[in-house]
Amino acid sequence: MADKKIIAVLGSTGSQGGGLCRAILADSAGGFGCRSITRDTSKDKAKALSSAGAEVVQGDLDNVESLKKAFAGAHGVYAVTNFWEHFSGEKEKAQAKNIAEAAKATGVKHVVWSTLEDIRKFMKPDDKRMPMLQEKYRVPHFDAKAEANSFFSGLPTTFLVTSFYWDNLYMFGLAPKKGADGKLAWAFPMGTAKMAGIAAEDIGKVAYGIFKAGSAYIGKTVGILGEALTIDEMGKTLSKVLGVGPIQYNAVEADAYRGFGFPGADEMGNMFQAYRDFANEMLANRSLAESKKLNPALQSFEQFVTKQKSAILAAMG
Ligand SMILES: NC(=O)c1ccc[n+]([C@@H]2O[C@H](COP(=O)([O-])OP(=O)(O)OC[C@H]3O[C@@H](n4cnc5c(N)ncnc54)[C@H](OP(=O)(O)O)[C@@H]3O)[C@@H](O)[C@H]2O)c1
Hints:
Blueprint: E1 5-9, H1 15-26, E2 32-38, H2 44-51, E3 55-58, H3 64-71, E4 76-79, H4 83-86, H5 89-106, E5 110-115, H6 140-148, E6 157-161, E7 164-165, H7 168-171, E8 177-178, E9 184-188, E10 195-198, H8 200-213, E11 221-223, E12 227-229, H9 231-242, E13 248-251, H10 254-258, H11 265-277, H12 279-284, H13 288-294, H14 301-307, H15 309-315
Helix pairs in contact: 1-8, 3-5, 5-6, 8-13, 9-14
Bound molecules: NADP nicotinamide-adenine-dinucleotide phosphate.
Residues 10-17, 38-40, 43, 59-62, 80-85, 141, 162, 164-165, 168 line the site of NADP nicotinamide-adenine-dinucleotide phosphate.
């Protein structure tokens, strides 16, 4: 790896960073090497990356000194935090601050920061459509990432605005389920709005495209998606590709969704409402052409469902 530009990848045992590591490792002539960062180098996903040719090192987002060690000598850093491990906007910002501090200390040449937009900018503070969460956020995992953008000023950064993972269908329990009547149904507070979605693996592939393009993307914000679809359009594709009956879409109100009671229902209710009420703004922030340019293998929803058919069917029970 000595002759290669090393990308130190946070979240390497997860969806985004894992996709980036696999993209780097699949392109052995590309001139880049993958340094996978994990808190636990003995876990199976870390071992799999090591077997595929990655250097695996220990690092913890809560420990800035461990990040400085993990970034030492690297050309680039893929920066992603995991809100869903702790559900705290404040903690997410503290972790992003640690990443930026370690990147500054080690003088890396390119940081790709996985961020999202600040939903508060779309609404007046006294807007009652959506409750504030954790006192000051509309959608904490969006707003906190956007606030954290400022930590990266002064660093050679690309701000990567991601989209809803279609993988949530099988990873987050969001697939349609059979009701008491035996018919498939799902509920979202999305009305007839189109939501920007993407196959999680494609985010890492886009990030690899950004590192390869290098300085052209430094200082830029890049919003990506695989396709923008209504829930009904997604349901029709699921029925067609999976060979299941029609999927009943219950377009519930956001308040009803927030009351569903699962952990994070309020956060998800606000997020879907933001995708619905600010669909034009959210779609304007993301470019299909740019996503395809950076990742020519970008999947459509139909391609994604075809590839993940068995996982989605298993999640539907
Ligand atoms: N789900 C969606 O639709 C969606 C859409 C857009 C953006 N996002 C954002 O994506 C982020 C999560 O990324 P992901 O889905 O790729 O993650 P993931 O698949 O859930 O995996 C989490 C990754 O984060 C790492 N990690 C967590 N805490 C860490 C810590 N303290 N120190 C070092 N590493 C840590 C884990 O590494 P180890 O456990 O190996 O240490 C693991 O690699 C979230 O912040 C979420 O808001 C999600």
